Amino acid sequence: MLFKKSIQTIVLGFALWLCLLFGAGQNPIMAANLTSSAVITDPKVLSDPQGFPKLESAVDQYLMSMPSGYYTIGNVEALKSLMADRQPLLVDVRSPSEYRSGHIPGATNIPLQQMARNLNKIPTDRPVVLYCSTGYRSAMGVMTLHLLNYDNVRGFPPSFAGWKAAGEAIVK
Hints:
Blueprint: H1 2-24, H2 28-35, H3 38-41, H4 43-46, H5 54-65, H6 76-86, E1 89-92, H7 96-101, E2 108-109, E3 128-131, H8 136-147, E4 153-155, H9 159-165
Parallel strand pairs: 1-2, 1-3, 3-4
Helix pairs in contact: 1-5, 1-8
């Protein structure tokens, strides 16, 4: 079990790295610095003896083996049910100004950029659900917390936009 958790943590780390790399693509200087590393461009490091990419193959196998809904709460009704039954900590990972403009009732604001500095606010003994505007930041937050050994964290991909579109209550 510990070995399986270690492999999952490593693969989630690679996935987070890929998200950050593609996000860095918006900044050409940062992207150039990341991709010019010898470790990243050395074919011996990235390929197995047959020439197949190691990292790509490992990530592909991991992603293909994930069940549908992995680490997610897929719809508003499922989130409402979880909120009624298990009292999760609902974390809005958007900026403070986005949070102030409207958020899901009961949500705590911990912006994604400040997540690591606020781990003391994130419990390990009850469910934690992250959401943002559209799902991108909350997915990064879920991966980050799983890398830090939180196995009670899930994302809410419908995010604030889905909650609002469903006509649910919003706190301003």
